[in-house]
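task queued by scheduler; priority normal; single chain, no ligands, no partner chains; default sampling; output format set to C-alpha cells
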Amino acid sequence: MAEKHNKVPDDIEAAEALGHVPSQTGEILKEGNNVHDAVFGEVTEDGPNYRNVGWLGTVALMLKTQIGLGVLSIPSVFDTLGMVPGVILLCIIAGIATWTSYMVGVFKMNHRDVYGIDDAGALMFGPVGKEVFGIAFSLYWIFVAGSGILGMSISLNAISDHGTCTAAFVAVAAITGFMLASVRTLGKISWIAWLGLVCILAAILIVTISVGIQDRPASAPQDGPWISDFKITNSPSFAEGVSAVSALIFACSATPAYFSIAAEMRDPRLFTRSLIVSQLVSTLVYIVIGVVVYYYCGTFVASPALGSAGPLIKRISYGIALSGLLASTTIVIHLPSKYAFVRILRNSSHLTSNSMIHWATWLTCTLSVTVTAYLIASGIPFFNSLVSLIGALLGAFLAYQASGCMWFYDNWEARDTRDWKWLALASWNVFVIVAGTFMTIAGTYGAVVGIIDELDRDGGSKPWTCADNSSS
C-alpha cells in the first residue's frame, strides 16, 4: 500500500518556525510572496488565493450547504413520518452525518494529496473509482443546484404574487446564480454564505413565530373552528417513508462538499472544530423549526415550509429568504464547477493565473453547470420529490458508502490486532455502508414514485410551465 502520511510538524507554531504550513495536499512551501500548493501549484499575488478560508468561514460554508434547502422540507417530512419518529430519525441521520463528515477531515489529513472525493475514490478503487466518485459528485451538486434554482423561482413567485411566467423566474434564478458562482474562491464566497445563513434563519423564524400566533395555516379551511391535526406517529407507505428519510439525508448530509471546502482552508486541521459547530447548530435548528411548524400546521404544512403562513407573512418570509436561497444556489453551482476546473487545469500554471485560458475554462465550467441545473429545475418542478431524489440517488452513496470505505482503507492493516475498538468501529462502518446502499436503492424508488404521482395529480405542477409554483 502506498505511503499514506506526509509528515509535517504537529504544532502550528513549530511548523511556522520551520517555514512550513501544514496542508491537506502535502506541504505549502513559502518562497517570498509565493507559496506552492501540491494541488493549486504556485499561488501568487497575481492570481486567486485558493487557500484563504478560516475556520469560521468554514462553519458558514458548511451551514449554508445544509441550512437553506433541506430545512424547508423538514416539517413536511414530519407530516409523513409523524412527529416523534421524525425527530428520532432526524437525530439518527444527523449523528451518522457527523461521523461521515468527520471521516472526510481525517482522510484528508492522512492523505494530503487528496483534493476531492474523486481522488479518494482513486486511492481506494483505482481509476474506475476516481471516475465513479467524480461523476457522482458532479451530478449530486448539479441536482442540488437545480433544487436551489427551483427554490428561488418559488420565492420570486411568492414575492411578486406570480408576477410573471414561472419559467422566466427560473431563468432569472439561474442567471443570478451563475454570476455569483463565478467568483473564483470560496474565501470570497464565505461572506455570501454568512449573509445567506442569517437571511434564511430569519425567514424561517418569522414563519415559525407566525404559525404559532395565528389561528390556522394559510392552506387550512378559513371558515369554522380549526385544530391542528398533527400526528405523533404516522403510517406512511413504503415509498412515502423512504422518500421522507431521503429528504432527511439530503438535509443533514452535506458531506460530499467537505472535501472541496477543506481544500481551501488555511489550516485544515481545524476542520473538525468547524464540523462540530455546524452540525450542532443545523441539527438544533432542524428540530426546533420542524417541530414548531408542524405542530401548528399539521397536514396543511407547505413544502417549502415558508408557504405555511398567511399570504402577507409568506411574501415577507420569502423576500427575506431569497438572499439565503441565492447563497445556497451560488455555493452549490460553485462546487461542481470548481471540481471540473481544478481537474482540467491541475498541474498547469493556468490554474492560479489570470490568463485567458484560466478565465475561459472557469466560466465555461460555471456556465455548463448552471445550464444543466436550469434544465433540471425546469424539468422536475416538484421541490419535495426533487430533494428526495437527490438525497437517495446520490447523497447516501457519496456520504455513507464512501466514508465507510475510507475508514476501512485507513484502518484495514490494524485488523490483526483484534482490538475491541477496531471491531466496534468496523461493525459501525459496515452498518453505515449497508444503510447507505439500502437508502440508495429504496430511496430512489420512493422518489421516482413521488415524481410520477405529482405528474399524474390533477392540477399539479408541470415541467416547463408558467403556472405558479408557490401555491403548494
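post-processing summary
- Confidence is low (pLDDT under 50) at residues 1-29.
- Residues 337 and 366 are 5 Å apart (CA to CA).
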